[in-house]
Structures are given as structure tokens and as C-alpha cells.
Amino acid sequence: MNEVSPHNAPEKLTVELGDRRYPIYIGEGLLSQAGNLIAPYAPSKKVAIITDENVWALHGKTLEAALSSYETHVCVRPAGEAQKSFEGLEQVLESLFKGGFDRSDLLIAFGGGVIGDLAGFAASMFKRGMPFVQIPTTLLAQVDSSVGGKTAINNRFGKNLVGAFYQPKAVIADTDVLKTLPQREIKAGYAEVLKYGLLGDRAFFDWLDDEGGEKLLALDNAALLKAIKQSCTTKARIVAADEHEKGQRALLNLGHSFAHALELDAGYDGDLLHGEAVSVGMEMAFQYSVQKGLCDNDAAIRVGRHLEKLSMPSIASEQTRLVDPKRLTHYMGQDKKNESGLITLILVKSIGGAFVQKGVADKDVENFLTSLTASSDP
Ligand SMILES: NC(=O)c1ccc[n+]([C@@H]2O[C@H](COP(=O)([O-])OP(=O)(O)OC[C@H]3O[C@@H](n4cnc5c(N)ncnc54)[C@H](O)[C@@H]3O)[C@@H](O)[C@H]2O)c1
Ligand SMILES: O=C(O)C(=O)C[C@@H](O)[C@H](O)[C@H](O)COP(=O)(O)O
Ligand SMILES: [Zn+2]
Questions:
Q1: Is the beta carbon of 144 within 6 A of some atom in ligand 2?
Q2: What ipTM was estimated for this complex?
Q3: Contact call for residues 39 and 67 (beta carbons, < 8 A)
Q4: Whole-angstrom Cα distance, residue 211 to residue 204?
Q5: Which residues form the 3-dehydroquinate synthase N-terminal domain (predicted)?
Q6: What pLDDT does residue 84 have?
Q7: Which CATH number fits domain 183-376: 2.10.109.10, 1.20.1090.10, 3.30.300.180, 3.40.50.1000?
Q8: Model pTM?
Q9: Considering only CA atoms, which residue is closest to atom 43 of ligand 1?
Q10: 163: Cβ below 6 Å to ligand 1?
Q11: CATH of range 6-180; options 3.20.20.100, 3.40.50.1970, 3.30.70.120, 3.30.300.30
């Protein structure tokens, strides 16, 4: 049995959800301690690991060794957003039936946000629900998707439109596994880190803009730990206060109404990653707020400069995706936050000052998107 060694003791945060409260463990070398960390949630000692081909090839052996005292069944899916589909879901459920699982067994989602959302959704519906643990392996998943219990697949109407709120029993974030991430994926994850600064934490943004952003993109250990802890602390607080997004949880959607429309438009084939779309979407939220007189232009300029300095996707770099404002606006009409046929947007008063704006007319959004296109220049 692997012991949790004292010099390697993980940081522990808690998502305070009463009798469904759960820990988030963050630290180096945690994958090899997974056997001990999941033990309270796997009394039957039978575990289903849902993962993707890249993660399994790079880190599967470490997890298998850590779980040597368990009976493990592995379901390896192709990598990529296309797995968040009815077909991907059916394949995961099939693997659970074939493995003879029941509700006393544990499912482990071992991968990025795609695997977390897909496997979490499968766990929520398998025999009406089996327990699951998140072992996130991307920066995006460690700072955001593994926490909070949003699980979903996409369909032709849009992102995450079929899903459930279903909380994991624990989250185990091993920062060592991030060392194998391609730079493009690190940047995609960085967008969600930046989101926490922009939505409610000016000091965190200042740190990111000053030195934290560059250090994170270089996977500096101390910066990584700080950013994951800070992001998860904010997310855990918001989720504990508003698990089902009746109010303040919607702030975690900053930039996402625009982002999800861009993703649907691009197709879920890897052309535009979720985090890349969020990067552009957050800049749009700032610019929209400026156009409506809600936010000072200096704030939007500062956000734009930050994205440019780190070579992050931006309105300027993604101009070719903005050529059809009417279609993008139509896609935004399906967003889950909308009410009574009107769009809900997360807007900003300042850096760190996001708020929920309901009742936005389609035409306002379309006019705004039109104003961003190169063809609207005088
Ligand atoms: N549920 C939520 O709250 C929430 C929050 C944010 C995003 N999301 C969802 O998360 C998804 C995006 O997640 P993602 O960015 O992690 O993408 P992903 O899961 O597709 O992973 C990105 C890529 O990195 C590879 N990979 C994963 N871990 C690796 C590692 N350690 N080393 C090398 N390669 C590795 C994967 O195989 C994949 O090719 C989107 O579907 C988005 O909608 C959900
Ligand atoms: O956890 C949340 O709440 C979020 O909004 C986090 C987002 O980063 C994430 O992309 C989420 O999946 C989007 O939620 P959705 O409800 O707009 O599908
Ligand atoms: Zn997101």
C-alpha cells in the first residue's frame, strides 16, 4: 500500500456542501498516492477508470501501480471534445455494464475536462448514480472543471446542453502530471485561471499580469500551486453558496456565452479549444460592457494587453471566427442561463467586478458582434 508521505503532504481544500462536502487534494506526486486517497470512497475495492488515449499512454502506469490493491477496469476513449456526445456517453456506460459494475463501486474520471464532464455524467446516470472521483490531468481541469459537479455532453444545439449537477466524492490534482501537457493546452487552461481574477479578484489578476501569467505558462511549480489553490478556493466558495446556479455561480460563466457560440460554430474537432474560446469570450464581455457604458475603457484595454502579452487568443487573433454575427447570436439563444427568450450575459464593472445581466436583446448582441468585425472598420 502506498503511504501519503509527510514531505509530500497535499494541500487540502473542501467544497462545503453539507453531507456531500468533499476534499480537493492539490500537490506533487499525488497520482502515486491515489490508492490511499480514494480508499474512503471505494469500499468494494472495484474501480472503473475512464480516461483518454493520451492520458492513459502517459500516466496510466502510475495510476495502475497506485491502484494495485484494487480490481480495476479501464475504459480508454479517443481524446477530444467530440467525446462529449451521446455516442461517447453510450460507450462509457457500455464499459460499465460489461465490467459488471454496481452502485457500491467507484468510477474514476482520469483526464482533462472532456473526460471529467463525460465520465461524471455517466456516473450520474449509471444505475441512477454511482460515486465518482475526479483525477484531473490538465491545467483547465485542475483549476476548474473537476470542481463543482457540472457534468455534460454537447449536442447539435450547443455546448453542455444535456447534463446534470453531480458532485464527485473527491478531487485529486497532481501538479506533476501537468509537465507533459502541450503548450496549447496550458494556455487553454490559463484562460480559466485568468477568469477567476477577472470575475472577482483584482489582486489575483494583478499578480497574473505582473509575473504570475508568464510563470504559469512556463509551469513554474510555485506559481502553479498558487494558481490552482486560488482558483479552487474561489470556485469551491461559489459552488458551496450556489450549487445549482440560481445566482452567483453564473459569474463562473464569464465569457462563456460568447465562447460556447464560437465553439459550436467551429465544430468540436479541436479547431478551437474551450479555453481558447473563453479567452476571446472574456475580452468580448469587457468590450460589450464598455460599449454599454458599464465599464471603463481602460479596464478592457488592460485585459486586451494582458492577452496580447501572453499570446493568448483574442478578438484580434480570432477575427476570422467573427464573420457571421447573426449566426453566433442565434447560437447564444440556446444558452442555459437565458430566461424568457432573452439572453443573460456576465458583464463587468471593472477588473474583478463581474455581475449577471439578464434580459439582453438578441439585436444588442448581434450589433455588438458586428462592431467587432474587421469589415465594420471605417
Ligand atoms: N464541468 C465544468 O465545470 C467545466 C469547466 C471548464 C471546462 N469544462 C469542459 O472541459 C473541457 C475542456 O477540458 P480540457 O481543456 O482539459 O480538454 P481535454 O480534456 O480535451 O484535454 C486536453 C488535451 O490534453 C490531453 N491531456 C490531458 N491530460 C494530459 C497530460 N497530463 N499530458 C498530456 N496531455 C494531456 C488530452 O488527451 C487532450 O488531448 C470542455 O469540454 C469544457 O466544456 C467543464
Ligand atoms: O462551474 C461552473 O459553473 C462554470 O461555469 C465553469 C465553466 O468554466 C465551465 O466551462 C462550465 O462547464 C460551463 O457551464 P455551462 O453551464 O455554461 O455549460
Ligand atoms: Zn469554462
A1: yes
A2: 0.99
A3: no
A4: 11
A5: 77-187
A6: 98
A7: 1.20.1090.10
A8: 0.97
A9: 274
A10: no
A11: 3.40.50.1970
